[in-house]
């Protein structure tokens, strides 16, 4: 029987393992930590009974993922839950940009910007499944839906700052800017619109749901399916070389390119090793989880019903802050991503105390403390927030990397979203998953299509590995 070892039990590692197991391969997954899940782990970080997501929190690409959809994970305990409002971006005026899953309702709230919003996201959202069929694959392929891909590609090439000019209202511009900032890159750079376009379209097509019981429920369900398929998972196993894995037919590495250099060593072809050494990592996340007595006292009423919030002010303020972190400068007012997952999933709360999830965008390798900057951004849009805090857990940039070795320098996206690395990551080549070592493949989010809990990097890498077996 064909055998495979998968290193890393995050969503992409488990996706690769499941796809191989479905094809009759005997699969063994090795995880260095004591718990599986990578970026989808959840923990009681502040007070007993409060469930906090350790990293990933909202899953528009997870619920939209063609591969995850094919697994029937609902049969293994995964249940998606939606808040009343998917996303809100408040401004100092007390107003806000609001993204409802219903695009018509979103556009209606935008007044004079409504028609332009519909023109940008109407077809993108209605044809989102066709689009993901092409975008969630390596760039070098024959597109199944060339017209949709071409329309998206033209808009995706533009800097986010240029795309934002389509709208006149500061609320609308800020709403798009906050979503585009998920790229952790300059909003004036080419292709910086791409992430904002995809995540906004996903929001209208599928919403921004959370997983009941915490993000860990996603990989728990995947692990249950893998076990049913005969695959095994071993935790607490640190892999330091390919030689330690024995002689499986396939090795799938759900790790950062820097770790491949360590694990593969001299077996890597020179050209691949050079590319992995040149691979760029992006800005970092500084994370705080809060235990809050009652609800956050948001000034804007829509914020009180939103699962996700972006705190950063106007588009111009967000763009300035993102530009600073790319340059290695810590902003006085960083972009802060906030999660109120408990609004959709009350099981995460306990006795009137609710978990609030937040992280700030900070420079790569940032060694300072962003705690006060994050709380100040809350206070800016929710005066009195500080007085509601009854517990908190801080995870600095260095601790983010300790928590997950793939997060080099605190980069939770496992790679900078430069124009080149958006188009081709981790290196230029027809097969981005091949390490150049026969039977050894990279399947982490350092490969196409990049970061996000969607499993497509692992699925695509497994497809590549299976083609190798057939050749």
CATH class label of the largest domain = Alpha Beta
* Number of distinct helices: 19
**Based on CA inertia axes, which overall geometry fits?**
globular
Number of strands: 16
- The level of helicity is 25-40%
Strand order of the biggest β-sheet = 7-6-12-13-14-11-15
Structural class of the secondary structure composition?
alpha/beta
> What is the percentage of strand-forming residues?
15-25%
Mean pLDDT: 95
How many separate domains? 2
- What is the CA-CA span between the terminal residues? 17 Å
Biggest sheet details: 7 strands, mixed
Radius of gyration: 21 Å
Q: Name the CATH architecture of the largest domain.
A: Alpha-Beta Complex
Low-confidence stretches: none
Query: In CATH terms, what is the fold-level topology of the largest domain?
Result: Polyamine Oxidase, Chain A, domain 2
Topology record:
Layout: E1 3-7, H1 11-22, E2 26-31, E3 42-43, E4 52-53, H2 60-64, H3 66-70, E5 80-81, E6 85-90, E7 96-99, H4 103-109, H5 114-126, H6 128-135, H7 146-156, H8 160-163, H9 170-180, H10 193-206, E8 210-211, H11 216-228, E9 232-235, E10 250-253, H12 257-264, H13 270-278, E11 284-293, E12 306-311, H14 315-326, E13 336-339, E14 353-362, H15 371-381, H16 385-388, E15 389-395, H17 397-403, H18 419-423, E16 440-442, H19 456-470
Parallel strand pairs: 1-2, 1-10, 2-9, 6-12, 10-16
Antiparallel strand pairs: 3-4, 5-8, 6-7, 11-14, 11-15, 12-13, 13-14
Helix pairs in contact: 1-11, 1-19, 4-5, 5-10, 7-10, 9-10, 9-14
Protein name: FAD-dependent oxidoreductase
InterPro entries: FAD/NAD-bd_sf
Pfam family, one: NAD_binding_8
């Amino acid at each position: 029987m064909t055998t495979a070892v998968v290193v890393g039990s995050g969503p992409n590692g488990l996706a690769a393992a499941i796809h191989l197991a479905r094809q009759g391969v005997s699969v063994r997954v090795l995880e260095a930590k004591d718990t599986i899940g990578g970026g989808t782990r959840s923990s009681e970080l502040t007070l007993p009974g409060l469930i906090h997501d350790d990293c990933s929190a909202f899953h528009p690409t997870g619920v939209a993922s063609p591969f995850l959809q094919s697994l029937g994970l609902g049969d293994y305990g995964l249940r998606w839950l939606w808040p009343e409002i998917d996303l809100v971006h408040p401004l100092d005026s007390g107003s806000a940009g609001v993204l409802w899953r219903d695009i018509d309702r979103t556009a209606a709230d935008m007044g004079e910007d409504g028609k332009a919003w519909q023109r940008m996201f109407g077809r993108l959202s209605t044809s989102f499944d066709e689009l993901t069929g092409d975008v969630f694959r390596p760039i070098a392929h024959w597109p199944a839906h060339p017209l949709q891909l071409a329309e998206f590609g033209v808009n995706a090439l533009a800097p986010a700052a240029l795309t934002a000019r389509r709208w006149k209202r500061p609320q609308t511009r800020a709403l798009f800017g906050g979503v585009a900032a998920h790229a952790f890159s300059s909003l004036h750079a080419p292709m910086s619109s791409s992430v904002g376009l995809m995540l906004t379209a996903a929001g209208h097509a599928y919403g921004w749901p959370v997983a009941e019981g915490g993000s860990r429920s996603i990989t728990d369900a995947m692990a249950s399916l893998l076990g049913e398929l005969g695959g095994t998972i071993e935790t607490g196993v640190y892999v330091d070389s390919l030689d330690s894995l024995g002689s499986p037919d396939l090795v799938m590495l759900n790790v950062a390119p820097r770790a491949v250099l360590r694990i593969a060593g001299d077996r890597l072809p020179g050209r691949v090793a050079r590319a992995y050494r040149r691979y760029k990592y992006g800005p970092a996340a500084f994370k705080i989880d809060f235990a809050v007595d009652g609800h956050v006292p948001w000034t804007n009423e829509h914020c009180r019903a939103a699962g996700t919030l972006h705190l950063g002010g106007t588009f111009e303020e967000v763009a300035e802050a993102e530009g600073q972190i790319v340059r290695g400068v810590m902003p006085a007012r960083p972009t802060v991503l906030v999660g109120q997952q408990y609004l959709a999933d009350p099981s995460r709360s306990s006795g009137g105390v609710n978990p609030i999830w937040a992280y700030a965008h900070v420079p790569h390798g940032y060694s300072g403390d962003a705690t006060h900057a994050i709380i100040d951004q809350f206070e800016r849009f929710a005066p009195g927030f500080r007085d509601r805090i009854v517990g908190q857990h801080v995870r600095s940039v260095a601790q983010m990397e300790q928590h997950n070795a793939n997060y080099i320098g605190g980069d939770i996206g496992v790679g900078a979203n430069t124009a080149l690395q958006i188009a081709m990551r981790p290196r230029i080549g027809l097969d981005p998953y091949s390490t150049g070592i026969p039977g050894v493949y990279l399947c982490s989010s350092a490969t196409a299509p990049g970061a996000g809990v969607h499993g497509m990097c692992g699925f695509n890498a497994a497809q590549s590995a299976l083609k190798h077996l057939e050749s």
